[in-house]
Amino acid sequence: MDEELLSLLTSLVEIETENPPGDEAAAANFVYDWLESRGVSATLVEEPFPDRPQVAARVGEGEPSVVLNGHLDVVPAGNRDQWDHPPYEPTVRDGRLYGRGSADMKCGVALAMLATVEFADALDAGDLDGSLVFHAAVGEETAEPGTKTLLERGYDGTYGVVLEPTSLRTATSAKGLGWYEISVGGDPSHASRPDEGNNAIQNARLVLDALEAYDEEIRARSDSLVGHPTATVTRFEAGTKENVVPESATITVDRRFVPSESVEEVDAEIDALLSDVAVEHDLRVEWTRTRVYESAAVPTDGDIAARFRDAAAERADIDPEPWGIRAATDVRNLVNDAGMDAITWGPGSMAQAHAYDEYIELSEVEAGYDILRAALRGLFEDGGN
């Protein structure tokens, strides 16, 4: 295992960057200082949040231009008593590095940092054709416009790699998601006189039944790379006191959608579903979409995808068949907002993302860096053809 790579990954995991609340500044400053100390001119981008800087850099000029994108924020560690290895005291054991963000996605950031430094001299001198753009973005875990802002500020390219954990498979498609908060009304009464009220929980049961049928219906749709869409109830809240018939209930739905479905189409389906159940059962139902990540897809036979599939198959015997990732990533910004040919690819398992005792296999980290270097070098040497 390359000692510099291990040291860099360990240092990044040690820095708490939980989001919420969005505390990436210390990590951003570390990344900026590290790049500058190795001769790469970096920029602290104090947008969209002045107190949560992002880091961007560009080495070389011209084409092909490749963006290496990673995010600095991690989800909260949760109940730390559930961790056998403290989340921010990175521990190496049995060939694994444990710690929050080890897989999602401090490893991806570390690989992008090393690659930027490694290729900087050759790209700046013109020994290799093209340019490499580095992103260390904020706010990915909460759908904030970190990556989108970096792209709008000119840190874009023709190609892109979002270094999320994919177990080294190359994803040319990514599911989208929408979170929907549904409010179901009722009328309160004393629980000793329940018939004088209108129990919002009982009303919500009718909505839950409709959502279950909707989930079954949309699962019949299919995408060859990312599978089928889903609508999953993930939260339910109701009631204010033990002896009060509840006047409202709130249902949260996680709706995962495939590239052929637009946000507007999903909104319309949710609206029609809830309108129908409200009319049929004389209910008061309102909804709002609280978060959205658009889906994204690029051709499976694109240059960047083919190079990463081939390099991964050669170095680590990774399945070269076209594939898509079920999770939502910032690849949507590269593809949908900037029109880039971008993939999601990186070491680490998505099964470890957001989990207690999150870890990454160090052998996979090492293989990942070899694959990244090989794919980039081939792209630059061939001029992106």
How does the SSE layout of this entry go?
Layout: H1 3-14, H2 25-37, E1 42-45, E2 54-61, E3 65-71, E4 91-93, E5 96-98, H3 102-125, E6 130-137, H4 146-152, E7 159-162, E8 171-174, E9 176-185, H5 200-218, E10 230-238, E11 248-257, H6 263-281, E12 285-293, E13 296-297, H7 303-316, E14 323-325, H8 331-337, E15 341-344, E16 359-361, H9 362-382
Parallel strand pairs: 3-6, 3-7, 7-15, 8-14
Antiparallel strand pairs: 1-2, 2-6, 4-5, 5-16, 8-13, 9-11, 9-12, 10-11
Helix pairs in contact: 1-3, 3-9, 5-6, 7-9
Cofactor: Co(2+); Zn(2+)
Keywords: Cobalt, Hydrolase, Metal-binding, Zinc
GO molecular function, one term: hydrolase activity
Radius of gyration: 23 Å
CATH topology of the largest domain, which one? Aminopeptidase
Note the beta-strand portion.
15-25%
**End-to-end span in angstroms?**
32 Å
Oligomer: single chain
Give a description of the structure.
With 385 residues, this protein is of the alpha/beta class. The chain folds into 2 domains: 3-174 and 295-382, Aminopeptidase; 181-293, Alpha-Beta Plaits. It is built from 9 helices and 16 strands. It has a 6-stranded mixed beta sheet with strand order 1-2-6-3-7-15, sandwiched between helices. A 4-stranded antiparallel beta sheet has the order 10-11-9-12, with helices on one face. A 3-stranded antiparallel beta sheet has the order 4-5-16. A hairpin with a 2-residue loop joins β4 (91-93) and β5 (96-98). α1 (3-14) packs across α3 and α7 (303-316) crosses α9 (362-382). The longest helix has 24 residues, at 102-125. It is elongated. The mean pLDDT is 98. GO terms for molecular function: hydrolase activity; metal ion binding.
